[in-house]
Design brief:
Radius of gyration: 28 Å
CATH topology of the largest domain: BirA Bifunctional Protein, domain 2
Distance between the termini: 47 Å
Helix content: 25-40%
Shape: elongated
Number of strands: 16
Structural class: alpha+beta
Bound molecules: adenosine monophosphate
Strand order of the largest sheet: 1-5-6-11-10-9-7-8
CATH class of the largest domain: Alpha Beta
Number of domains: 2
Strand content: 15-25%
CATH superfamily of the largest domain: Bira Bifunctional Protein, Domain 2
């Protein structure tokens, strides 16, 4: 083996690729039912976007970004997340001028130099949605509902929604002072990492797996919210209750990205152990301003595709039949290749899906290839058939064979596809 894929990345093909494609299609349709439209942004952006939006003191920016310099010396970064790029695109394309609420969904690869393990990769994929332009809690509820609809659609059960409010620039600084004070008293109990974080980004301590004991004795943000954040948080909870969306209040919940304000939430799969977060999101009312776009409130979520795919009920995995062909063409004599390719080209333009055996192997092996392909029909075209302008068509389920004129071939094959579906 001369080359291997980089650590923490994956190749997708075969049945697995097919189930990904099918799930992506279902997610696009789901987002459409909620009135969200797709947005695609570049896979790399100027590094400064993520440094400012996600936050310099976060793990993502300080340790996990794939940063490179282009030939003109500009610093670019493979996107570690897609909320900042969507906001950048929203502002750059002047979409804020339209007013109202802009709703986008996206799907695609993200890159983080994280320690690979089950459910954690260096190139992973997220499906996400962003609703930009409205400050009220009803839109937070819509986002939470959409993210849960993803898992409902695939029959997931027993999921947990953990909900918190992480405050805003009015109330958070005061809370951070209180928190720093409390941490100062317990400094020698903190792990080395948190010892360093205590001054710069003290809320990250709530995310530390080692400092569990101390966490439970620290002050919590929800006791320090300003009236506006409190009202928003209360409003969201009552909407969710009315919608019968179960949630657990978790004052220790913080997200690994600094742009969150007010609402922060996660959807957990309690059966998954370490990497049990399926999806996370929240409000980011300060991000537009950070990106140079004035004050525009927004809320969104992103769901890890790998964690969705790896825990999908069986009916959505395995054979999907999505790229099975309608007919498998067999060539008794490879000198007929050009003629068969031309005939197949015409049939394909009429919508027929065809795989042609161009290997020149024995008829017996080509026949076996036909059965393995899963196609209902084998179509045999040799010099004799070309002469007579008709093909020998074999129904693989029964072995019955008939001769069909070339001009009727498309109709015959499509008829068989219809028979299969009926
Ligand atoms: P985040 O962008 O950090 O809020 O993460 C949102 C979701 O993306 C998580 O709940 C995971 O499902 C998924 N995710 C984040 N990082 C990774 C990773 N390194 N590998 C696989 N999935 C990830």
């Amino acid at each position: 083996m001369r080359f291997r894929r980089p650590r923490g990345t994956q190749d997708f093909f075969g049945d697995r690729m097919r189930s990904w494609a099918k799930v992506e299609e279902m997610l696009a349709a789901l987002a459409g039912r909620y009135g969200y439209s797709e947005i695609r942004t570049p896979v790399f952006e100027v590094s400064e976007l993520f440094v400012r939006a996600v936050g310099e003191a976060t793990d993502i920016v300080s340790k996990e970004m794939y940063v490179f310099t282009d030939k003109k010396g500009r610093s670019l970064t493979l996107r570690p997340e897609n909320t900042a790029p969507v906001m950048r695109a929203f502002i750059e394309n002047g979409l804020h001028r339209a007013g109202g609420i802009t709703r986008f969904w996206y799907q695609g690869p993200m890159f983080r130099y994280d320690r690979p393990q089950a459910g954690r990769y260096r190139q992973f994929h997220q499906f996400g949605a962003e609703a930009i332009g409205h400050p009220g809690p009803a839109i937070d509820a819509e986002i939470i509902d959409l993210s849960l609809a993803v898992y409902r659609m695939f029959g997931f059960e027993g999921l947990e929604v953990r909900l918190n409010s992480v405050g805003c620039p009015v109330c958070r600084p005061g809370f951070l002072d209180v928190l720093r004070g409390a941490l100062e008293e317990r400094r020698d109990e903190l792990c080395d990492n948190c010892g360093e974080r205590a001054d710069v980004n003290p809320m990250r301590i709530f995310d530390c797996k080692e400092c569990g004991e101390i966490k439970s004795r620290l002050p919590v943000i929800t006791d320090h919210l300003c009236p506006e954040c409190s009202e928003h948080f209360g409003g969201l909870q009552s909407i969710l209750r009315e919608m019968k969306v179960d949630f657990i209040l978790d004052p220790l919940l913080v997200r690994g990205l600094d742009y969150y304000t007010k609402t922060a939430y996660e959807v957990l799969h309690p059966g998954l152990g370490g990497q049990n977060a399926l999806c996370g999101g929240g409000r980011y009312d300060g991000l537009a301003e950070e990106c140079g776009g004035g004050s525009i409130p927004a809320v969104g979520f992103s769901a890890g595709m790998e964690r969705l795919m790896e825990n999908l009920p069986e009916e959505f995995t395995g054979k999907t039949g999505l790229d099975r062909v309608d007919a498998f063409f067999i060539l008794p004599d490879s000198s007929a290749a050009a003629a068969v390719l031309s005939i197949a080209g015409r049939l394909r333009s009429e919508g027929v899906r065809i795989s042609i055996d161009l290997s020149g192997r024995s008829m017996k092996k080509q026949m076996r290839g036909a059965s393995d392909s899963g196609a209902p029909l084998a179509v045999i075209i040799g010099p004799e058939e070309i002469e007579k302008k008709e093909a020998a068509v074999k129904l693989l389920s029964s072995g019955d064979q008939e001769n069909i004129p070339f001009e009727e071939l498309a109709a015959r094959i499509l008829q068989e596809r219809k028979n299969e579906i009926d």
